[in-house]
Amino acid sequence: MDKTMKFNVDQQQSDERKEILKYVYGALKEKGYHPINQMIGYLLSGDPTYITTHNDARKVIRRVERDEILEELLKFYLDHNVE
Description:
Layout: H1 11-30, H2 35-45, H3 57-61, H4 66-81
Helix pairs in contact: 1-2
């Protein structure tokens, strides 16, 4: 067990996660919420009521596990901020 495990994310899954995040962001914004705060509340607590039911956004975001969303966010951040 002294070898590092390697984890791969399929590009198609990654693209789908990005689209889901954009969709939910748009639904929250459309309803007048602060989308970042609401999404952080959901990610930290796991409570889906942080996400609006408008345009089925709550149902849509639950298609992706929270850890997968965090993975996508971390990957995006590091890809754009680390040399």
